[in-house]
Amino acid sequence: MTAFDEELVFNALYETFPDPVIILDAERIIRSANPAALTQFGYAADAFIGQPARLIYADDDEYLRRLRNRAARVDETIARTSTYSYIRRDGSTFSGHLRTTPLIDAAGRELALIGIIRDVSDLAKAVLERQRASDMLDAAFDVMPEGFAIFDAEERLLVYNRAYVTICGPAGPLLHPGMTAEEILLLAQKEGHYPEALPGNPDWPAWVAHRLQDFRQPDNRAKIYRYAGDRWLRVENIKTKDGNTVVLRVDVTELKRAELTLERQRQELEHKNEALDQFTATVSHDLKAPLRHISMFSEMIEDELAAGNQDEVSASARHLRDSARRMNRVIDSLLDYSQIAYQISTWSDVDLGDIVADTLGVLGGHAREANVAFEIGPLPKVQGDPELLRRLVQNLVGNAIKYRHPDRGPIVRVNGRAVGQQVELAVEDNGIGIDPRFATRIFEVFQRLHHDESTYGGTGIGLALAKRIAESHNGSIHLDTSFTEGARFVVTLPKRMRKTK
């Protein structure tokens, strides 16, 4: 049997090894190179052997980096720390992963260094292309106008774009990976970022709980919420198969404003149609009645003059004059009513205290004549048309004076309060009161519950005007049917009005 020749086997492996193998001495001089190394670097053996190791590195910086790594005993099994740029004889370069094995003598001195270089140019190119693609994706991701973020299964923030930072409002500058969805939500809520969950609103915990529920168990339906700055956002939460949550936040303010404008126009058209119906009914009744009287008394005067009955002409003429005046009042009331739009176009800050003070000044003579006692409570500020609000208050206070009880001293109380984002103005009296059955009817045009104009004069349009003014401010008015000491009207107005674009 032939003895096993280790040197022969080593030489065979060395010569046929597919990757370049280079042996350096302690002075970093190339002492040996296998055929794969000579082919990779493009040298003949006599032009390669004996050269310094610097020959194979692309530039001084790469060679110095190699020396520093060597001195620091960097782990050369890790590709990213032991990949260098090498240069061939023809000047072309390639990326190579270097692995080295030192040859140590009995005294522990390094005699030589065996280096194996694997060409990883294709891999490096693929990594570079991947990085470029990743950079492009990151750039596109960051300029997206929609807010985008991903949370892990523990609700911790993983990634997010610039739009998401903006959308998070006060929480935006403090965002960082690892922050929980609940922390972000509560921070923004605390700083007043959500108008529907302001810190002073007792219902804000329920609102926050609803938002967190939608985040944790989304129903795959987009929700629209109002944000600070009168903005509207579409919110979508999407659960992935691995338990992560993808969130999308899209600014739909312009779309929402257009939707609200259409809704206001629809409501205004509906109101106008109702007003037209009421107007038609009014023309057929309230205008025709005085016209019939005018026609009747005119004929009576004509007959009496023809009969030479002068004594009755004066009475008929007086009735004719009263009917004409009644008709004139009705026409004036209709003009007042028709000139109030359902959406005011100009508004300003209005102190309801000033409005009430002006009203008492205007109605002062009538109030003193009726010996009315006024009790004025605190009154908040609102935004609206001061002239229209003045007419509203005058109508309510004027009615309270007019419909006083004959058996007790009249008292009129006016007070207000803020309720969340709204303001309530209440005008109450201790007068004859209103049957709750007519709580809706009294706000219709020319609806009068008392037909004795000698005691309770007017055309019956005052409360209809008050209702229209309240609605023009996006508010409402109603009769408090639980109040039994007289009549109590409550006007609800938004504290702040939004301009219509």
Automatic annotation (TrEMBL):
The keyword Membrane applies. Residues 282-497 form the Histidine kinase domain. NCBIfam families: sensory_box (TIGR00229). Pfam families: HATPase_c, HisKA, PAS, PAS_7. Keywords: Coiled coil, Kinase, Membrane, Phosphoprotein, Transferase. Signal peptide: none annotated. Residues 6-75 form the PAS domain. GO terms for biological process: osmosensory signaling via phosphorelay pathway; regulation of DNA-templated transcription. This is histidine kinase. It catalyses: ATP + protein L-histidine = ADP + protein N-phospho-L-histidine. One of its GO terms (molecular function) is protein kinase activator activity. Residues 80-132 form the PAC domain. Its EC number is 2.7.13.3. It is an enzyme of class 2 (transferase). SUPFAM superfamilies: ATPase domain of HSP90 chaperone/DNA topoisomerase II/histidine kinase, Homodimeric domain of signal transducing histidine kinase, PYP-like sensor domain (PAS domain). The keyword Nucleotide-binding does not apply. InterPro entries: BphY/WalK/GraS-like, HATPase_C_sf, HATPase_dom, His_kinase_dom, HisK_dim/P_dom, HisK_dim/P_sf, PAC, PAS. Residues 250-282 form a coiled coil. It comes from the Bacteria. GO terms for cellular component: membrane. It comes from Ensifer canadensis.
